[in-house]
Amino acid sequence: MAFVITSPCEAEKAGECVTVCPVDCIEKGPDQYFINPDLCIDCGACVSVCPVDAIFEEYDLTDEQQPYLEKAEKFFGIL
C-alpha cells in the first residue's frame, strides 16, 4: 500500500483527493476515505490537495498512525 489516509480525514472527509486521483482508487468508507492499494499508482496527487494533511506514505507512518493502515486493509479485504 503506497499511501494511507489517517485520522484527520475522520473529522473532515472533504474529498478533494477523490477528484484528483487519475485512477479512481480512493473510496468513501463509513467514517473516512480509503486508498485502494491494488489500484493506486503512487502518483501522490492526493497528498498535495488534502486540506487536513491526512495522507502519508505507508513507510512514513508513525506508531500512532499504524492503525489506519490496518483499517484500510480491512476495508479492502486485504486482511
Automatic annotation (TrEMBL):
A Pfam family recorded for this sequence: Fer4
Keywords on record: 4Fe-4S, Electron transport, Iron, Iron-sulfur, Metal-binding, Transport
The keyword NAD is assigned to this record: no
GO MF annotations in UniProt: 4 iron, 4 sulfur cluster binding; electron transfer activity; metal ion binding
PROSITE patterns: 4FE4S_FER_1 (PS00198), 4FE4S_FER_2 (PS51379)
Cofactor: [4Fe-4S] cluster; [3Fe-4S] cluster
Top-level taxonomic group: Bacteria
Functional summary from the UniProt entry: Ferredoxins are iron-sulfur proteins that transfer electrons in a wide variety of metabolic reactions.
Protein's name according to its UniProt entry: Ferredoxin
Lineage: Bacteria, Bacillati, Bacillota, Bacilli, Bacillales
